[in-house]
Amino acid sequence: AQSVTQLDSHVSVSEGTPVLLRCNYSSSYSPSLFWYVQHPNKGLQLLLKYTSAATLVKGINGFEAEFKTSETSFHLTKPSAHMSDAAEYFCVVSGKKGGGADGLTFGKGTHLIIQP
Amino acid sequence: EAGVVQSPRYKIIEKKQPVAFWCNPISGHNTLYWYRQNLGQGPELLIRYENEEAVDDSQLPKDRFSAERLKGVDSTLKIQPAELGDSAVYLCASSFEQGGLNEQFFGPGTRLTVL
Questions:
Q1: 115 residues of chain B, pLDDT tens digit each
Q2: Residue pairs between chains A and B whose CB atoms are closer than 8 Å
Q3: Euclidean distance between the first and final Cα of chain B, in Å?
Q4: Which of these, A51, A61, B42, B59, has the minimum number of CB atoms within 10 Å of its CB?
């Protein structure tokens, strides 16, 4: 079984300040982890993914995340927030039972608000 | 490159009526997924196809939901009869799997409202 917990339902930051969106995971297998972003009335877009290579993963639009086994965490960060970052962010886990495709298990989402 | 196409984008029906959603995945993608996203929640997997075979439908409510992907390309998800609790956004995604875990690309979704 696998699950993710997004620790904050809403995060509000000022434009130009750092962003931190927190995610803890649970998996019976060596997990693959993702962050997706969903802008209003648009499809989900992949920001970045971790698949057992480097633990610090860089994604699009300046986002990055660090996989920490000891803390079972995969927090998303960005050094400087931009107004266009306002959206819903989902932490996602997929178990790899010996490889192969799998459905994704989504967290409940964190709504990121950017204050001007 | 065209993305995942879904239609309709919006659908409003009365309870007990049937409804169908259509998905055209990205060309060449062998794996197709249907998810349901309730308001304020993350998407939940309903069914996954590898080519035309449904390999994971454990979360599909089979008493009223059905899906098909007859030629391993387009897919249709049907609800009959619809209930008030089925109001949600239905998302289709596709990927090209080669034994590894490759990115799933999502369509814009169909927003269903059941009155």
A1: 689 999 999 999 999 999 999 999 999 999 999 999 999 899 999 999 989 999 888 889 999 999 999 888 999 999 999 999 999 999 999 998 776 667 889 999 999 999 9
A2: 63
A3: 37
A4: A61
